[in-house]
Amino acid sequence: MIHLFCALPCEAEPLIQHFKLSAIKEFDLFRIYQSKDKEISLTTTGIGKLNTAAAVCFQHACLKTSASDIWLNIGVAGHANLALGEARLVNKITDEHDNATWYPQIIFNSPCKSTHLITLDKPSTDYQDALYDMEASAFYQMAIRLGTAELIHCLKIISDNTAQNTATVNADKVKKMISAQVQTIEKLIDCLKPLSAEIHSITCKPAHYQHFIEEWHFTKSESIQLSRLLRQWALRLPDEDVMQLVTNNKSGKAVLKTLRSTINNSEFIIHD
Length: 272
Known about the structure:
This protein has about 270 residues and is an alpha/beta fold. The chain contains 9 helices and 10 strands.
């Protein structure tokens, strides 16, 4: 799944329209929207770090996210001299309150330039050569506990600078700025999808895993071993019936022993 987080309704509205998202009515603490195929969600967090952290946790609990999901914080930000409307991917996040710093993992060709971001506790026009917002550090700090670092990013669009400060920003301008960068947002998602698929293939349970768990008892440690052995089986013995092999085993330990012995004694051939 792809999870988008916006602080303000005016930031969210162009994305809701573009991705054809509908409100999920049963969740009312934060507004959550979702596509018909449930592949894209968007949560409006409200302004500030506390709201953002709570919204990320709430969305995770409501939609039951996975390690292969994509998490994006999309919104506007200030900068000393970047032109209004320009998009920037964040490569470093610093929380001004305690100077805590995070480095998002950009291991793909970004559809836009990247730069440093500072998250503030309150609005400021004391611009520096960095993005300014009030949510990114809380978003990243919470999302990194729930997802995979390489799939968690912040993309900001310049709404104010030293020439045109926050007093010039309004909801209509924000909507237009976000709308103008929808293609950049889509390109960013497209960059992350292959990585998401790769992580899914690594973290998802292998074939027959659930049947094994229901049929025999495995401790936590043994269930991890089972998952690893079933992946090895799929790679080395894809044409063999694993269920037939273990059908007479009486315990989880016996199953693991049978799988391990068969795999170790098999000839390793890379199949086309």
